[in-house]
Amino acid sequence: MTEQFDREQFDRMAAEWRYIITDMICRAGSGHLGGALSLVEIVMTLYYRVMRTDPKNPRWEDRDRLVLSKGHAAPVLYVALAYRGFFPTSWLKTLNADGTKLPSHADARFVPGVDMTTGSLGQGLSCACGAAYAARLDGKKHRVFCIIGDGESNEGQNWEAAMFAGHHKLDNLIAITDYNKLQIDDFTDRLLTLEPLADKWRAFGWEVFEMDGHDWDAIYNTINAAIAARGKPKMIIAHTIKAKGCCIVENKPESHNIKVPDRAAYEKYMNALTIKATLPY
Description:
The chain is of the alpha/beta class. Helices cover about 40% and strands about 10% of the residues.
């Protein structure tokens, strides 16, 4: 997928996505706002400029796969899929409601375009390794992308998967760490430091890249450089800002899972967004 890039249009759409994501979570009464807002530019770039997908045929055999291992950030994936035409945008207002097709964590059973049900942190990268290894065995050329969280990187299973991918030299696997430096309780470096993060991945046999996760050019160029690299799995460390665009919780631990008990709280979060937009439902 390569869409003509218009910076002004992409900036406007990123602001709109943040507005919609916040509305979705506020309507639901609670949700993981921070980790969804930190991924907007990355997910938009994947679906509009990088990944090969077909909204009319979500299970197209030759599509690129995306495993959102930090499945609690599903609202940003849902918005991307709705905007690309995998399902109606009217579904977005039903996040986690009774009878919804959009549960709070990404679910491949109900949502067209979701490649892997995720949310049990630490498991997504293992699934992505399996998908990448299966593609090699089948002689397929599609790529497998996997987004993991920095807090999620405390999970030991990630490092088992890292060892597997490095051993098998899965160069059709491109992982991205959403390195927003925060997790549910506090800043990551206060709880269990990840540094030196890049060196850790290199030690497991991965090619490592770093980028500003909100800079359009850096995201596009880094992902394409990772795709082009051969002989190793690839890890992109994306430096992002948790809850970017929502001034009252931006870069704060309390953005991880907000509670919205009433209309006043809804208005508080919606008014805290740097840019207002029109809801598509």
